[in-house]
Amino acid sequence: MPVQDKATFRFAPVLRALLPALSLLVVLAGIAWLNPRAISYFGFNLMLNLAIPLVLATLAQMFVITGSDLDLSIGPFIGFAACVSATWLHDAPLVGIAILVGAVGAYAAVGALIYLRDLPSVVVTLGMGFVWQGLAILVLPQPGGLAPDWLASIMGVRPPFVPFPVLAAVVLAVVAWFLLEQTSYGVILRGSGGNPVAVRRAGWSLLKIKMTLFAGAGLFGVLSGLSLVGLTTSADANIGNGYTLLGIAGVILGGGEFTGGRVSPIGAVVGALTLALAASPLLTFMHIPPDWQIGANGAILIVVLTARVLVSRQRGTV
Amino acid sequence: MKHIFAKPWIWSFLSAAAVWLIAVAVTRGGGAGGMLTGALAMATFIVVVGVGQMFVIALGPGNIDLSLPANIGLASAVAMTVMNGNDALVALGLLAALGCGLLVGLANYLLIWALRIPPIIATLSASFIIQSIDISYGRGLQIKPPPALSDFANLRFLDLPVLAVLAILFAIVAAIVLQRTIYGRWVLAVGQNIRAARFAGVRVGWTRCVTYMLCGELGGIDGALLAGYFRGATVDIGNEYLLSSIAVVVIGGSSVSGGKANLPGIWGAALFLVLLLTMLNTFGVSAGIRLLLTGIIIVAAIAVASDGRARDAV
After folding, report:
1. Is residue B313 part of a domain?
2. What is the pLDDT averaged over residues B6-22?
3. N or C, which terminus of chain B has less Cβ within 10 Å?
4. What is the pLDDT of residue B29?
5. Burial A160-178 (b: 16+ CB within 10 A, else e)
6. pLDDT by residue (tens digit) across B217-269?
7. What CATH number corresponds to the domain at position B294?
8. B160-161 and B156-157: which strand pairing?
9. Which residues 287-316 in chain A show a CB within 8 A of chain B?
């Protein structure tokens, strides 16, 4: 039976790689079956309304996970970026831009601190979450503020045929894929999560790599905050908090792993879209109360991870 | 004297004393004792979950329980429902909270074991589901704790919170379990080198399962006590205990990479965190500044506390 063995060996990794896309298709099929009218230009615009900030938050988290770290502060950071966008960026654009650029710099500095002191990222970023939350409250003590007009109009674009969230997700997936998988430095970045010692011996600065990964997370975090304000037209200091855990879930759903720099930008975007569709529209169509939204995210994670284990087991490797 | 300062936990107590002195200086000596007993009472709730988190973290790299806040929230709701405001049912309610936490811990471990996923993901997924169960089960739950429970949670003997005294005894017992029992030795062995532990005959799976269940139980009992102390259960009653449970482990001198745990430090670090908030409150700063400074000081404390420990942990 060697032929069959060979066949399953080839089949399993492909299946594993297709798992994120399959999950998305299952969710889409569920929606189409429950409510066929939702599968339309208008339907997708509504269902994926808040998908863009989630996709960006997931990509932000993915950069940190690439280096085998975890960022528990990205949610409050997105909230902070949103608060700055709805206040300074609207009233004094130059100051607003300076603050946001500074915030990305601060993110890189956190990466440097984690690397230089060899600290656990979970603990440091958990503390940084308080810092960003505090700053967000200082910038915007009460919910409110106003989105800059240009931001609201970008987020309100209605391109022909393809709904904007879908278009944006595809563009973001391609950009992130290009950065991490097509550039030579992207390979180094992923390598640092897999075998940092080898990367250092090859002459690369791990400090620079860690700072680049965290700066990438900061940049996408800022973009997530901007898109959030563009959609909601106002902000509140707690607006981003949910994105910390959702982003991690998105990366994992997309086939990423916690260690070894094994991440997939396209998978992460697909994972984020799956979460966005499953958490709210699918549940609504199934007449499940919104109380279970968060639980649905957990259930999807568990189901997909179970599927992953089953696929790997077929391959015969642990 | 010299070897006292060599203890990794001494710094957490010194920091706690420092922030207390600053707070006392700001109020010009007013309420110094009150601040301390108040801090003891609040630190109790951090210590209970901190000890659980410490056992989990001691299991080695990647082991962490992110489901504590959801667990605390659900257990507080379960305890309040079972007690139903009736003094006679307090013991039953506490048992129910314990059982609820135990099940959460077991579910966490089953996910880790069956799906072969890092504990962070397992406890994260579990916490999503627990949170939903709590939201749907505890929505609009208006049951007050039985008077006996809230009296007990707020009880003071010679001005000392009784709950804090019990928590100190509990910490001593936990230290003995960690250092002097086979189970405790196994936890540390697994944390130091899981393969070596397995070859040495340690029942690795059993040890990890028991540890996650222990952490779950402690979260459960903490939830019931919190509901008693604050006179009611809410969904977000446990929210702040994720950061504080992890922070006390690190600041208290336990190794984050596992295999080395330190119980006295949990108390020192919990007092430090609570007194830090007290100090910031005496400054009369706004909520934003308070969060900002708390975050900065915690990150700074971790950056300083981790120094050298990574070296002597090896």
Report:
1. no
2. 83
3. N
4. 73
5. eeebbbbebbeebbeebbe
6. 999 999 999 998 888 888 888 888 988 898 898 888 888 777 888 889 999 99
7. 1.10.3470
8. antiparallel
9. 289, 291-299, 301-302, 305-306, 308-309
Q: Is residue A22 part of a domain?
A: no
How far apart are the C-alpha atoms of A144 and A96, rounded to whole Å?
16
Count the domains in chain A: 1
Q: Is residue A125 part of a domain?
A: yes
pLDDT of A316 > 50? The answer is no
For residue A227, the enclosing domain spans 35-315
In a domain, B52, yes or no: yes
Beta carbons of A309 and B115 less than 8 Å apart = yes
Domain span including residue B55 = 7-307
Q: How far apart are the first and last CA of chain A?
A: 22
Residue A7 counted as domain residue: no
B118 neighbors B109 (Cβ within 8 angstroms): no
Domain membership flag for residue B134: yes
pLDDT band, very low/low/confident/very high, at A228 (cuts 50, 70, 90)? very high
Substitution target from B280, B299, B309 for chain A, most A beta carbons within 10 A: B299
CB-CB neighbors (< 8 A) of A124 in chain B: 299, 302-303
Tell me how far apart the alpha carbons of residues B285 and B294 are, in angstroms, rounded to a whole number: 12
Q: Is the pTM of this model over 0.95?
A: no
Domain count, chain B: 1
Contact between B124 and A296 using a beta-carbon 8 Å cutoff: no
